[in-house]
């Protein structure tokens, strides 16, 4: 049976009710899915249906099998992977925008979503204090944001050397020196590989004990060059020294790109804005809205000071496409042509939080990180990083005890944190990114973490 047109309201209301129920119980269920819920996913493994079924039946199955098998990433006590939840306002805007089903590649057919993106971009440029006239694109995440911004960088540095990389590729092109810190995020190196610049063909600059690039060890540059700095190390939350990097790179005529997947948002938190000082002097920036802005996936942002460089690397024309436009064409700034109007969620987050609401959310996360640091240090555990932002690295003694503690915490279910290795030391990483986390959630989680840590150390 297929859905009749008049079934649509009932179906969508059913979906909304199920989603509301799901979100309602997130705070009281185990954060990680229980083994039996994962086991029950086998219920999805059925033969490809020969014909249609009632969508409400399929939705019921989706909810009954799918919902319990989710990780509680939208809930208040998920502290993994430096990702936030989705603000309820942005879930609502996302639902509405999904109903609109706008293919937001071009302005003329989709003026509504294209306008919202342009407005949201303008607000963010103001918020991050980026240069006037900076261009930007809404992409899937920081990986593609890095890729997009670095494509503009590749265009610009080769254009300056008299080479048209879009037309002629990299065969025979003047070589580009690419500089990264030892702590570069692997997705940035992946972007370099996708751009033909090579994952390994980079100059790596040593870092300090927090993962910050040592500006005094930057290489002398000559000819086409791109320097990739980082705002927010995924383990420590530390920031590369932007003023020194920008000054040194620009003196040599190099392009400076900043990977600020989550750290760039520090610009909007008054007590942390000093961390991004000098960042606006760069030439391009990448960040995620699905991390600290707390909008639904997938939502990355690329910003490029020289909008012409971005458009030169991204824009296309075709006879069948209305690419001529009186207004900003979204797809002139992104690798994709067809895509959802993901800027709607960003607009909604910024529209509903406002400057002060955003600052409060970010500051709250930083305060939570400080409380974790204080509570864990107080309990006798070693904190491996300077807690400058929203990241806490804790060791429970030797690597085996630390991994035992992480496993116990994940299994207990009150909260979820992941493990990492920081400069040779195994650690548990606590990332405070979610709008939903309260002081009470932090206290509840601390209690469990301390108990698990002590248990794991006693087992040695
Ligand atoms: C510094 C940095 N860059 C890039 C990324 C990749 O982001 P995404 O997973 O949204 O592509 C991350 C993810 O944590 C990150 O921390």
Please summarize what this structure is.
The chain is an alpha/beta fold and 460 residues long. It is 40% helix and 12% strand.
In words, what does this structure look like?
With 460 residues, the protein is an alpha/beta fold. It contains 13 helices and eleven strands. A hairpin with a 7-residue loop joins strand 8 (382-383) and strand 9 (391-395). Helix 4 (88-100) packs antiparallel against helix 11 (343-378) and helix 6 (142-160) crosses helix 10 (307-314). The structure holds pyridoxal-5'-phosphate. Residues 82, 141-143, 185, 187, 230, 232, 234, 259, 261-262, 288, 300 line the site of pyridoxal-5'-phosphate (PLP). Pyridoxal-5'-phosphate (PLP) binds at residues 82, 141-143, 185, 187, 230, 232, 234, 259, 261-262, 288, 300.
| Strand composition percent | 5-15%
Biggest sheet statistics: 7 strands, mixed
Q: What is the mean pLDDT?
A: 96
Q: Uncertain segments of ≥5 residues (pLDDT<50)? A: none
Number of strands: 11
Oligomer: single chain
Helix tally? 13
List descriptors.
single chain, alpha/beta, Aspartate Aminotransferase, domain 1, 460 residues, seven-stranded mixed sheet, 12% strand, 3 domains, binds pyridoxal-5'-phosphate, four-stranded antiparallel sheet, Aspartate Aminotransferase, domain 2
SSE topology:
Elements: H1 8-25, H2 35-39, H3 55-66, H4 88-100, H5 111-127, E1 135-139, H6 142-160, H7 165-168, E2 177-181, H8 186-194, E3 203-205, E4 225-230, H9 242-251, E5 255-259, E6 284-288, E7 300-304, H10 307-314, H11 343-378, E8 382-383, E9 391-395, H12 399-412, E10 418-422, E11 425-431, H13 439-458
Parallel strand pairs: 2-3, 2-4, 4-5, 5-6
Antiparallel strand pairs: 1-7, 6-7, 8-9, 9-11, 10-11
The structure holds pyridoxal-5'-phosphate.
